[in-house]
Amino acid sequence: xxxxxxxxxxxxxxxxxxxxxxxxxxxxxxxxxxxxxxxxxxxxxxxxxxxxxxxxxxxxxxxxxxxxxxxxxxxxxxxxxxxxxxxxxxxxxxxxxxxxxxxxxxxxxxxxxxxxxxxxxxxxxxxxxxxxxxxxxxxxxxxxxxxxxxxxxxxxxxxxxxxxxxxxxxxxxxxxxxxxxxxxxxxxxxxxxxxxxxxxxxxxxxxxxxxxxxxxxxxxxxxxxxxxxxxxxxxxxxxxxxxxxxxxxxxxxxxxxxxxxxxxxxxxxxxxxxxxxxxxxxxxxxxxxxxxxxxxxxxxxxxxxxxxxxxxxxxxxxxxxxxxxxxxxxxxxxxxxxxxxxxxxxxxxxxxxxxxxxxxxxxxxxxxxxxxxxxxxxxxxxxx
Length: 384
Fold this sequence. Notes:
Layout: H1 26-33, E1 40-44, H2 49-53, E2 61-66, H3 69-84, H4 87-94, H5 102-109, H6 115-122, H7 125-130, H8 137-153, H9 156-164, H10 168-179, H11 182-191, H12 194-201, H13 215-229, H14 236-243, H15 258-267, E3 271-275, H16 278-283, E4 290-294, H17 304-317, E5 318-328, E6 343-345, H18 347-356, E7 364-370
Parallel strand pairs: 1-2, 1-4, 2-3, 4-5
Antiparallel strand pairs: 5-7, 6-7
């Protein structure tokens, strides 16, 4: 989940560190975009995780963009950690494994960071000491769930039984026999309902375009699907939500795996971090520049009209055949009307990826391809 890149349709505060991890499945993103070698790609930065994963495709360049200075500072910090530290020390510094040396690691990383990012983190030494993958507003919301809600619902043994399930029949039995009690259904709906989620986990303005009658019930159904129809054994999202960290037994985000670490370190010179709104950056981008767009769930938070205007601007800056990947959480958004004449939705691939998406809270993965000419004048997204 990542916004703070579009200002036009919402009124939200644009300096809070909302996400210290990316909550979209990077494997799904890579399968959707399928960029060729030496592509030029643009990605919503958010916490940097999936933008960094795009380096694994051997691109010419990846641009990670976000309007939020806090998200930009975090992305710079993760890049610096990969550039400076070994794999084990990087995991310890970011917060995956325990460490009492995070201040020392941060001091080592500073030479690889711009001054604005260094100053941002120097003022937040406590966050460095905690491990920066745990400090976002959304991650702290999950921490509240683990500390105060989950213990009322389930014992540690029940949580361990779910995480230890090695196949779907076992997950289904644990869910039916031990997990799906009244406390689970009732407290989950309340905690992940619009009121608490909007104020403690996200921002009330992010629900401006949501027409879902019961947000809490929607997420309850998504959670049921994740725990009964998606393998828990390789779902690091579920492990983090239920335990507060990654053990490695359920996998890791691609940018954190030892297998990928040397490749990322070698390709960081192709990674560009930009603080700007997406529409502003695209408005100054020549036609036919990008081969792929990782757009997170940005259309969730803007109007239907602004969505189509931004998609047309994306078409203008894309090469023919460029792919788009983004997620619908609670608001249905994709290319429609005139936009659909230049951007084609691949419903078959989107549906296939939605079925295996480990970021289970999303309704839909949207995969699209630019098929038309790019001679569009720059649009003014959000302006009236």
